[in-house]
Amino acid sequence: MKILFNFKSKKSLLFLTMTSFVSFSQTNDTIKSKDIALDEVLISAIRVTQKSPIAFSNLSKKEISTRNLGQDIPILMNYLPSVVTTSDAGSGVGYTGIRVRGTDASRVNVTLNGIPYNDSESQGTFWVNLVDIASSTQSIQLQRGVGTSTNGSSAFGASLNLLTDSYSYQSNGEISNSYGSFNTRKNTVKFSTGLINNNIEIAGRFSTIYSDGYIDRAFSDLKGYFLQGTYIEKSTLIKALVFGGKEKTYQAWNGIDGDMLKTNRRFNSAGIYTDSFGNERFYDNEVDDYQQDHFQLHWNEKWNNKWSSNIALHYTKGKGFYENYKENARFSSYGLTPINNNGIIIDRTNLVRQKWLDNDFYGITYSANYKSGALDLILGGSINQYIGEHFGKVIWARYASQSELNDKYYQDDATKNDASYFAKANYVLNDKFSVFGDLQYRRVNYKANGVRPSLVDDTFNFINPKAGVTYNLLHNNILYLSYAKGSREPNRNDYEGGNFKPEKLNDFELGWRLNTTKVKLNTNVYYMVYKDQLILTGELDDVGNPERSNSEKSYRLGIELDADIQINNKFSVRPNVTFSQNNNVDLVVNNINYGTRAISYSPSVVAGNLFIYEPSQKLNITLLSKFVGDQYMNNLETPEAKLESYFVSDLNISYQINTKKIFKSIVFNGLVNNIFNKEYVSNGYMYDVYPYYYPQAGINFLTGVTFKF
Predict the structure, then answer these.
(1) N or C: which end of the chain has fewer CB within 10 A?
(2) How far is CA 487 from the centre of its chain?
(3) Which of 625, 670, 668 is closest to 650 using CA atoms?
(4) Cis upstream peptide for 453 (omega within 30°)
């Protein structure tokens, strides 16, 4: 949960509005056709297709499962176009991050079954709270750019949508276990009753994940669950979901300086202190400890051949803390009374503090879909409220009376109301042209104390239009052109840093798609023009939160190419590459105009490739490669802030044995990460003029076996 601030809120999350309803083994044609109709209700509201004027990528359950051995969702998405990922612990377990087109996770809109997942205050995404959610994910769609209207804050680099598991017609179960480097292990049990009387299914999953991490003491101890009940009859589908997780991770967000990078890449300064004998020691509970539980209720209805609807209620409860050992802390900073020791006033002490977050997030999402002839119309929206309580406690101090401990030394409250409404339509003009229109209105009110100014009470009204045209050039060839506007409010950190301006984006996209039996090719040119973009400065505040500042004028201009080429019936290759320019224009820092400078954390080249060999349906061997070009950790292009480019490759092997007794099948999966043992750094920050780095693991492995029955 990384409550790195009284507020680094762990997502409130929830979902409801949808789930993917693709059956695993259809036994009835009537039910099958009904599934397709109900599926369209869900997908049409938040997802796009090949006919949409939007750049996107999909990941199927099969593609996810072969590498699902304990690493988080961002790591599983690492090889998608324009994606860069990182891991605090260096091994892909625990706290992980994702950037798309150079924009960080706080500006990537994330929804789970159509429900906003980004934390309402920090706007970040904390996948560590969704323990093993990959094992309960049916599919993932990543839309790059502003994308289509969805729920939650605007996408300023991408929008990411997860659909959780569908229901199953037949009873089934599976047991998965994996083990690998750094004592990493994952244990998962799944079950489904199948449809009882063709109407009701109950399914669930329980998971545990543990890893020592590549970085010293950067362990992750995670426990998660996923339960769902499904009712289906005629044109009605109702699903109730309860899922969540408990995470405990040793903090690893301090990074290391350049000297330590050369001598001890795995060093972790978190928890370091000097005892009364002058010995250097580490506090053993310098941890992040958080639990998050989600409740959803979905109702999807196919009313007739033209109208269908979806409505969902959701609630998320999150509560937890991060704990720090602080040396020589001033009493007055923690509400403690100085001690008079025989005339000597003691006003500093070593202590252990906890910073807590206790939050609730709930609301409703809805959509209605009308299809008739050439018109496909969707009306939708959401109303959500977030309530967060931030407080700190001193649980131990070397010099303090016991009565003063556990009192709250700060208490801050925040409320955020978010309502959005959208209408989107696609109209087929003729056999060549179709047009797309999308209009969203979003109203946000944010109230908070404990920030600068001491009381925030801001209301934002955003109108975000989108439009596009698609042209069928030839058979299997599609050209598209689109425009989209995005607007979003500052987060809590921005208020702390004195950056109160909302940011605005005009996104222009031009693309070409080729789709044949042997070759699928996507080419997309984007030009994203920002007003007051909140760019990362490269610095962290005193509790580890990334700081941002408004850049009055900036842009991102790039071209994305990705392909899926079937060489023959055994070999295929999936390359992708992004070339881009990402610049601030007339950048002003401390009243100095630096002219045009590269936007931080925005490499100009990002490339990936999958080389897939499938000699049979049972065996899959994939070589995955990723290149990330040079990037800067600040916006001034200073040499010290430069992160060097890196190229890494992973090897993934999956083999399935179909058995006739006890189990339906046994699946063996193996993953060797960084097979060439590259020493590289994927992320970092600046402390004044000094760089700090997050080194990633060298060659390491994960292996697992899944029994399906």
Answers:
(1) C
(2) 20
(3) 625
(4) yes
CA angle 649, 650, 653 (to 5 degrees): 145
- Look-up of token digits 């060839």: 477
Query: How far apart are alpha carbons 233 and 485 in whole angstroms?
Result: 40
Confidence label for 403 from pLDDT (cuts 50, 70 and 90): low
Q: Is the pTM of this model over 0.85?
A: yes
Alpha-carbon span 487 to 707, nearest angstrom: 47
Cα distance between residue 55 and residue 510, in whole Å: 9
Burial group, residue 435, by CB count within 10 angstroms (0-12, 13-18, 19+) = middle
Q: Which residue is listed with tokens 């407080």?
A: 391
Is the CB of residue 313 less than 8 Å from the CB of residue 16? yes
What's the confidence (pLDDT) of residue 21? Answer: 30
**Contacts (Cβ under 8 Å, ≥6 apart) of 117:** 11, 13, 14, 15, 110, 111, 125, 152
Classified as helix, coil or strand, 332 is helix
Q: Please, are residues 683 and 695 in contact by the beta-carbon 8 Å criterion?
A: no
The CATH number of whichever domain residue 701 belongs to comes to 2.40.170.20
Amino acid found at 378: I
Q: What is the largest CA-CA distance in the chain?
A: 92
Whether 324 maps to a domain, the answer reads yes
Q: Is 13 a member of any domain?
A: no
Q: What pLDDT digit, counting tens, does each position of 183-206 carry?
A: 999 999 999 999 999 999 999 999
Direct distance between the N- and C-terminal alpha carbons of the chain, in angstroms, rounded to an integer: 35
Structure tokens at 232: 């289906």
Any idea which of 30-39, 103-112, 493-502, 511-520 has the lowest mean pLDDT? Answer: 30-39
* Separation of alpha carbons 17 and 365, rounded Å: 6
Instruction: Tell whether 419 is covered by a domain.
Output: yes
Domain of residue 498, residue span: 29-708
Q: Position of tokens 């080194």?
A: 695
Q: Structural domain tally of the chain?
A: 1
The residue count of the chain comes to 709
Q: What is the dihedral of CA 473, 476, 481, 483, to 10 degrees?
A: 150
In angstroms, rounded to a whole number, what is the distance separating the alpha carbons of residues 287 and 322?
Answer: 6
Please give the Cα distance from 623 to 562 (Å, whole number).
16
Residue 332 lies in a domain: yes
